[in-house]
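Supplementary Note 3. Input sequence used for the single-chain structure prediction.
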Amino acid sequence: MPSRTSGATPASPPRTSALSPSALVHAASSGNADSSSPGSLSGGAGGRAAISAQSRPTRALPTRLGARAGSLVHEILERIDFRRSEPEELARVVESRLRAYGFEARWGEPLAAAIADVLEAPLAQGGSRFRLADLAIDERLTEMEFTLPLGPEDGRRRLTPAVLASVFERHPSPAIPPDYPARLRALAFRAVAGTLRGFVDLVFEHDGRFFLIDWKSNDLGPSARDYRPERLAEAMAAHHYHLQYHLYVATLDRYLRQRLPGYDYDRRFGGVFYLFLRGITRGGGSGVFAERPPASRIHELSRILEAPEREARA
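The predicted structure, written as discrete structure tokens, is reproduced below.
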């Protein structure tokens, strides 16, 4: 896949008014959100809770280990070879990271087993079928930093919840609840301009298509049944993860258009996966949200981010 360092990179020098994604929706929702920041748009990087890939106790780390355990799990996923070409690597990385984070060695075996389940779980979007275990290291880019323009800082064109809602109203899709535009209009952030900065947990290329993944540690319940599609749909809307991944996709689409001659969204972009780590099982069927937003929605969102007021009047 395109390297991080050649050509026009996704991240650019920040303006003085750079924001994090969480700043957009700091009061958008409350309750059982990802432990990094309830109700925020922040990615899965900070404050992740522990994986529980199945409901059996041997697959779980207790919630009492808290946010540091989540950061540990995320760091392990960044470091390991998903293909596990070296069989002992996963156990070795888990052991070293447990030690670095000050956790007891007894968690090594259940944590390694839970992560193995995540790697072996089937993922499907459109015509693509694969597992994380199918991905080579050189097909992955972890923690891709990005910036997105939110219109010029001249005070005349600023991004508002109503402007964002209009994009979803004009370009519906089955994965987006019909009431989601109304939820966006109710967001509690002021009109903003400048630059939005953030990180995408994982971007990868598979069979000629690009995908992105965000790891989520939301606690929706103690068993895999609590992570069925209908429960994930509720969490995606309640915590505005739909908006989050649209910002990510708009960033990646712009990046690929700049870097790949002849790039076309419909041919080369595969989709988005939100992996709710507590609910993923090796056999599949729980813990995975997937969508490939329509190109028309992503392209209009990109235009609005560059000139929000002008596009809102169009």
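The radius of gyration is 19 Å. Residues 3-23, 25-62, 308-314 have pLDDT under 50 and may be disordered.
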